From TrEMBL:
Job description of the protein: Involved in the cellular defense against the biological effects of O6-methylguanine (O6-MeG) and O4-methylthymine (O4-MeT) in DNA. Repairs the methylated nucleobase in DNA by stoichiometrically transferring the methyl group to a cysteine residue in the enzyme. This is a suicide reaction: the enzyme is irreversibly inactivated.
Domain of life: Bacteria
Organism: Anaeromyxobacter dehalogenans (strain 2CP-C)
GO cellular component: cytoplasm
CDD domains: ATase
Biological classification of the source: Bacteria, Pseudomonadati, Myxococcota, Myxococcia, Myxococcales
EC code(s) of this entry: 2.1.1.63
Domain Methylated-DNA-[protein]-cysteine S-methyltransferase DNA binding stretches: 73-152
Pfam (any one): DNA_binding_1
Location in or out of the cell: Cytoplasm
NCBIfam families: ogt (TIGR00589)
Record's miscellaneous remark: This enzyme catalyzes only one turnover and therefore is not strictly catalytic. According to one definition, an enzyme is a biocatalyst that acts repeatedly and over many reaction cycles.
UniProt keyword list: Cytoplasm, DNA damage, DNA repair, Methyltransferase, Transferase
Name of the protein in question: Methylated-DNA--protein-cysteine methyltransferase
Stretches that traverse the bilayer: none
Amino acid sequence: MSARLRYRSPVGVLTVEASDEGVFGLSFGDRGPSHPGPSARARGHLDAAARALDDYFAGRPPSLPPLVLQGSPFQKRVWEALLAIPWGDTRTYGEVAEALGAAGGARAVGGANHENPVAILVPCHRVVQARGRLGGYGGGVEVKRWLLAHEAAHGPALRPA
């Protein structure tokens, strides 16, 4: 069974979803009413996600909750690569593809970004087009611009010591 939380953020309402194993969804917009879930573990993962988002939006280093990322092996590799991009930095789709040993796979990386089930915490917003153009984003380009500006303003504080 899963639990759902609506989180009010500076970029609008976010919907967080979790199971006993961890957070498996974070999307933009209201995806239905909050539902605490049937288990203390699922509720705990929602609480951990809310704390991570509170910290992120306050400019403090967030402690990520357990994540349950469902996708193809390639998608999972891309999402792991996104987690390695430092706060306040960006990479191009081509740079991420090259780092994964998939030179020429920028479109495939873009497709994996599009399917990222846990927005913001798995930072697909840190991936941009060649020459720094923002490209698309599930929350909208203005939200992507806001997130990148927020991270740039708080980048030194958000980087792990």
